[in-house]
Amino acid sequence: MIGSALVTGAHGFVGTPLCNLLLKSDWRLVAAHRRVSSPPLLAGTKQEFLPLSAEPRRWLDVLQSIDCVVHLAANVHRMGREAALDASFNSVNVEGTRFVAEQCARAGVKRLVFLSSIKVNGEGNNYTAYRAEDPPDPQDAYARSKLAAETAVRNVCETAGVEFVIIRSPLVYGPGVRANFRSLLKIVELGVPLPLGSIDNRRSLVGVENLVSFIETCMTHPNATGRVWLISDGDDLSTTGLMRKMSRLMQRPDRLFAFPPRWLRRLGKIAGLDAQMGRLCDSLMIDATPAHQDLGWRPTVSVDEELALTVEAFKAERNR
Predict the structure, then answer these.
(1) How far apart are CA 147 and CA 133, in angstroms?
(2) Based on CB atoms within 10 Å of each CB, which residue in 180, 212, 213, 289 is the most buried?
(3) Contacts of 16 (CB under 8 A, 6+ apart)
(4) Mean pLDDT, residues 227-249 taken together
(5) What is the predicted pLDDT for the residue at 267?
């Protein structure tokens, strides 16, 4: 057994495969959830209801025997006016993260691993890969909240002598993926003609299996602490290339036709979909070289392998 770990957001898209991986590696594991109702049991884990920013005594009791906390719980996909979004994200992503870091400090937890987002660096739009040391440039309420949460983790942990690791991931995909990536899967499944055949961008992605593998590395590696890490699959794709891969895996006709990206952007602006069109047309690349050189980490699955698993799970769900 390597040690004991607590994972917040343990029943989420990233949390579930992370817990499964840690159990295979013989970690003694506590799966934390913040809902009053009990979520489905994760076999081999101890379940604990631990609300963010509340019941510090309960947190202290649970954390007394924990070596490492992985903080995944967050508000991610929200719609609404910017002021309301700032308040929503601040409550959970910033103050909730600060609270978790403070409880780790009180309980004497050795290491805290925090999952942030590449959106802290910015939204891309050129062919220069982001590096961890680049100046932050958050563009929306979610990204601002993640940057503020990183600052809270750093301040609390440095003051208390708790080791910390910050991981900024790009778009995560894999079996059970939701939000924008699932929307692309639905579009490809329909096989409708789309004007996306001329997009020559590059987007860094990370498969969920690669992400949880990297998280596990950061839980114990001595070189991981006190730093921000950028992570990706290492195989940057264009939107056109990604959708063609999806089409082949779904055995659907590839009906992408050429249309100037500049016109797509104009149409997106007219329709009030600037951000969505930007994610389709712009590049967002990550330099994950330090993770390879300093931590000796390499992706465990290829893009094609993770995409195949993603499509297979999507089709199975649709068939049910």
Answers:
(1) 13
(2) 212
(3) 10, 42, 176
(4) 95
(5) 85
Residues in CB range of 116: below 8 A, 6 or more apart: 146, 147, 149, 150, 166, 167, 168, 169, 228
Say which residues have a Cβ less than 8 Å from residue 222's Cβ, sequence separation at least 6: none
> Which pLDDT score, from 0 to 100, does residue 1 have?
58
Is the pLDDT confidence value at 214 over 80?
Answer: yes
**Residue 107 CA to chain centroid, in angstroms?**
27
Catalytic residue among 127, 130, 142, 173: 142
Say whether 130 is catalytic.
no
Q: Band the pLDDT of 225: cuts 50, 70, 90.
A: very high
Global pTM reads 0.94
Pairing of strands 111-117, 163-169: parallel
Using CA atoms, how far residue 236 sits from 161, 184, 264, in Å, is 37, 17, 22
The domains located in the chain, with CATH, are 4-172+205-233+285-300 (3.40.50.720)
- At 89, the amino acid letter reads F
Following DSSP, what letter does each residue of the chain receive, concatenated?
---EEEEETTTSTTHHHHHHHHHHTT-EEEEEE-SSSPPPP-TTSEEEE--TTS-HHHHHHHHTT-SEEEE--------S-HHHHHHHHIIIIIIIHHHHHHHHHHHT-SEEEEEEEGGGT----SSPPB-TTSPP---SHHHHHHHHHHHHHHHHHHHHT-EEEEEEE-EEESTT--HHHHHHHHHHHHT--BS-TT----B-EEEHHHHHHHHHHHHH-TTSTTEEEE---S--B-HHHHHHHHHHHHT----B----HHHHHHHHHHTT-HHHHHHHHS-B-B--HHHHHHH----SS-HHHHHHHHHHHHHHHHH-
Whether 91 and 52 have beta carbons less than 8 Å apart is answered as no
pLDDT at position 275 is 81
Residue 80 pLDDT greater than 60, yes or no: no
Q: Is the pLDDT of residue 40 over 80?
A: no
